[in-house]
Design goal:
By secondary structure, the protein is of the alpha/beta class. It folds into 3 domains: about 300 residues, TIM Barrel (Alpha-Beta Barrel); about 55 residues, Oligo-1,6-glucosidase, domain 2 (Alpha-Beta Complex), CATH 3.90.400.10; about 60 residues, Golgi alpha-mannosidase II (Immunoglobulin-like, Sandwich), CATH 2.60.40. Helix content is about 25%, strand content about 15%. The protein contains 13 helices and 18 strands. The strands form 4 sheets. It has an 8-stranded parallel β-barrel. A 5-stranded antiparallel sheet has the order 12-13-14-18-16. The chain has a 3-stranded antiparallel sheet with strand order 4-6-5, with no helix packed on it. The two termini are about 15 Å apart. InterPro entries: GH, GH13_cat_dom, O16G_dom_2. Belongs to the glycosyl hydrolase 13 family. This is Alpha-glucosidase.
């Protein structure tokens, strides 16, 4: 059964974390040429689209998410011509290309911020940013107690009595999208990449683009995820309505997807008919492997998204969280993948999770993530999920780059045991499961009714179908095997080997 509606409605999108995917020139950093060389692998995997993380010029304080020029390519990873070639090659292979736009902030090396730093207090150059006078006798204290997502204060001093806001790293000053020049520049950036033929855009830090202009203090007891004056405010949606109109002006159902963090109440407004096509459902990455939170959570997300004719965008993993195998266990990660692929909506798969890569424990002096520095080591950051991919069994760098090159993050000994080469011919491997699941999803689940009909199931299990007489999904989240035969006459696929009629614990089966 084929899908209906825009291409992205039920797409499987593969996140290429650019710097860790494939290094063609041997400088240790993944690049566009490396991605282009691996497009056959992605096409064979069966994904519909490729999401490229930032490739723009950057001082690299936050792995490329501190952008100094939004409309160019960093020479360390390629050129505009190479990106054009990658897009053309992807399209020839039936793959769509989604780019990552980081519009909440710029790098401290961006010309606008360089000018703001030099211009002095009260200058129009500073009006593009969130700049406030400090508290205290001489402005020596931050304007309020807001905390950076990366740790520490969200304010940094200019040294002249004024402070600038940075919700992330100190090298990432936040932009004021109310400023007409900021709004016009963002529109120009979006137009630039759409004109080059990208099929969609992920809006990084989607909810943070508008802050309360009064900059009020956070209430006592506030915790991350609670409503705040700097995230998901009602007035942020006018920005997305403008950008949605830009997307709609191009042919081919161009996608706008918001990087949202939170429950259905956060996601729903971004999906109104005049806004975006998708908003990330990140909450499931934190759901424990028990039936109750999954059943309730799926119902709530479906209700919120289908109300506007949309579907959830399930996130199996990303560069901002620990590896799926770390969060859910090796077997659990495979089970959740089949569960998500059976649900209505799109699925985002993080590079390397199709190999079942584990989280890597890096030494203190190997960590590059600014979260580690800003938290004084209390938070070890996200680099454990960003270690460059292994393509061959040996020797290091395991095919990530040319022999003898040194990746930007160290790969552990034995990394080749998880490699594409090792798993390619192993029918029990995570890679084999992914390669089997993605095309089968297209004929089995894609295009079926958006409703999930829950079936009676044993304790610690979930079971559902989508449309009478269609396939069924059985998820065993417990430790004890269960009989799959009450749910189907034929086993189509399972995330773990099945012995007769027994579906083992921590596994999912598709049945007909």
């Amino acid at each position: 059964m084929t899908g209906t509606g825009p291409w992205w409605r039920e797409a499987v999108t593969y996140e290429v974390y650019l710097r860790s995917f494939a290094d063609a020139d041997g400088d240790g950093l993944g690049d566009l040429a490396g991605v282009r060389s691996r497009l056959p692998y992605l096409a064979d995997l069966g994904v519909d689209a490729v999401w490229l993380t930032p490739f723009y010029p950057s001082p690299d304080h936050d792995a490329g998410y501190d952008v100094s020029d939004h409309r160019d390519v960093d020479p360390r990873v390629g050129t505009l011509a190479e990106l054009d070639g990658l897009i053309a090659d992807a399209h020839r292979r039936g793959l769509r290309v989604v780019v990552d736009l980081v519009l909440n902030h710029v790098a401290s090396a961006h010309p606008w911020f360089v000018a703001a730093r030099a211009a002095g207090p009260g200058s129009p150059e500073r009006d593009r940013f969130h700049v406030r006078p400090g508290r205290g006798v001489a402005g020596e204290l931050p304007p309020n107690g807001w905390r950076s997502i990366f740790g520490g204060s969200a304010w940094a001093p200019f040294g002249d009595g004024e402070w600038y806001l940075h919700l992330f790293d100190i090298e990432q000053p936040d932009l004021r999208h109310e400023h007409p020049e900021v709004a016009a520049d963002a529109a120009a950036t979006l137009r630039f990449w759409l004109d080059r033929g990208v099929d969609g855009v992920r809006f990084d830090a989607a909810g943070s683009l508008v802050k309360d202009p009064a900059y009020p203090e956070l209430p006592d007891g506030w915790r991350a995820g609670d409503p705040s004056p700097f995230s998901d405010r009602d007035d942020v949606h006018e920005i997305y309505r403008r950008w949605a109109r830009q997307l709609a002006a191009y042919p081919g159902d161009r996608l706008g997807v918001a990087e949202t963090w939170g429950g259905p109440e956060i996601i729903e407004p971004y999906l109104r008919p005049d806004e975006l096509g998708q908003a990330f459902a990140m909450d499931p990455i934190y759901w424990p492997l028990r039936p109750e939170p999954w059943r309730a959570g799926v119902d709530a997300l479906l209700a919120a998204t289908t109300r506007h004719g949309r579907l959830p965008a399930w996130v199996h993993g990303s560069h901002d969280v620990s590896r799926a195998a770390q969060r859910w266990g090796r077997d659990g990660a495979r089970a959740v993948l089949l569960l998500m692929l059976a649900l209505p909506g799109a699925v985002y798969l993080y590079a390397g999770d199709e190999l079942g890569l584990p989280e890597v424990a890096l030494a203190d002096d190997e960590i590059r993530d600014p979260v580690f520095r800003r938290s004084a080591g209390a938070d070890r950051g996200r680099d454990g999920a960003r270690v460059p991919l292994p393509w061959t069994e040996q020797p290091a760098p395991y095919g990530f780059g040319p022999a003898g090159s040194t990746p930007w993050l160290p790969q552990p000994a034995g990394w080749g045991g998880f490699s594409v080469a090792r798993q390619a011919d192993d029918p029990t491997s995570a890679l084999a499961l992914t390669r089997a699941a993605l095309p089968l999803r297209g004929t089995c689940w894609r295009g079926r009714p958006a409703e999930v009909s829950w079936l009676d199931a044993p304790a610690d299990c979930l079971a559902f179908e989508r449309g009478a007489g269609g396939p069924r999904c059985l998820v065993n989240l417990g430790d004890t095997p269960v009989d799959w035969r009450p749910y189907g006459q034929r086993l189509l696929l399972s995330s773990a080997p099945v012995d007769g009629a027994s579906l083992p614990g921590h596994s999912t089966a598709w049945l007909r």
